[in-house]
Amino acid sequence: MSFGPTYVRDGDIGLRPSVRARPRHGIKKETLVRLLLTGIFYVALLRATGMWYGYPSNFDDGASVDPLPQKLMLYSLIPLIGFYGILEPNRFLAFFRGIPLLVGIVIFSIVVSFFGSLDFGASVRGAAAVGLLALGPLLFRLRYGNEETLRLLANFAIFSAFANILYTAAFPRFGIMGGSLAGAVKGLFYHKNTMGQFSAICFIVLISHRLPSPRLRYSGLLKTIAIVLTLVLIVVSLSSTAVVMVAIGLATIVGLKMMENIRHSMARAFIVLFLCLLIGFAGSIAYLGVAQAVAEAFGKDLTLSGRSDIWEQVIPLIYDRPIFGYGFATFRQADIVEEYVRLGHTVRSLHNTYLEICLNIGIPGFLCWIAFLLTRIFKKIAAVYRSHQLQTVQAKEVALILLVMIGAMTEAGMMLAPIGLWPVLVSVLPMRTEPVVPPPSRRRLLSKGPGGRRSPRRPQPALGE
Question: What segment(s) does the record annotate as region Disordered (predicted)?
């Protein structure tokens, strides 16, 4: 009997997959990616909302606003996104695979509209800004899933609520509007309507159908105070659209909560379709009375403060260029709006996102975009998940999409524009609930088998759509 060492061939030596050594810098790289994408998301939200200090309270005075801080925030996204592409090139490219056909047609309509644009430079700059502000939130959503995205939106909502209240209290001459809109609070925003609508979105993001925990926690207390502050901001902004958005958002969440017990996707879709038809019929009957009551409560008339006069002048323009429009972002330029819209006061926007999109990229591109949004809404409603948390997040995403579409009826730039709620809308549109898994390379597809032979290893499927 020999007690000497026993030698085996090198090919027979291997580690089990569960105990293989991890890359030395794997944890540090993941932390860096998390911080980078979080920073990109926050910068995109801050730039889109336009929150800054020193905006004039009375726009009739012609006070100038320094655009440099907003430009720096926008341009900073280029190196940040490029740096992330270097850190994770395979995953970065995987995000762009499988772009929906309808979105591809919209992108094509935007590019083609450049060639007939009334202002080619404005169209190119507008498309670049829209792309940058959409890419940041989309990268985070596809990297970390919808639950983490909603948590990040909630953190920004809490910051926005406290920041606007404190700013208005410290600098009321900047935070409260003057002139014809005297008394309406705008906080850090450029206009009071933008603050009211963003506060409505923040309220829906923060609200929960569960009762607060009896155990006092600072995070829960902070969130509860932020919810109350968002309601205060909605009221003091004197924005009737924001009030309607809150009501519809709450109704959407409650309705989807009641349908959680219906596990069949087709049944859920038919129920939603029936409810939409019922609500649409009832709403068409009661619209005039409700609209008059809401308008009078905020000191306005049924013509929505002259918006109908603007729409009457721009609707005929759509039929002059119905295919590719007047150029992307063209009707976001104040001088072009004033050229085609003539009223007794200065008009800076069309106050309707749908008309703006039709004028910018044409009717086909507009129809494709609306069809994409409606398809996403019905898919999210019909989706059934075992996790209660996923169902709650999905209901909030449906509510947020609906709120943006409702706000777009009376305000310009709510969609396909580098302002306002665009990053929020982009972050809730994907159907995937889990992070995107990039396709494995050829080396990763092959693993050591018994006897040193290589056998194919199937990649793990990505969850979601």
Answer: 436-465
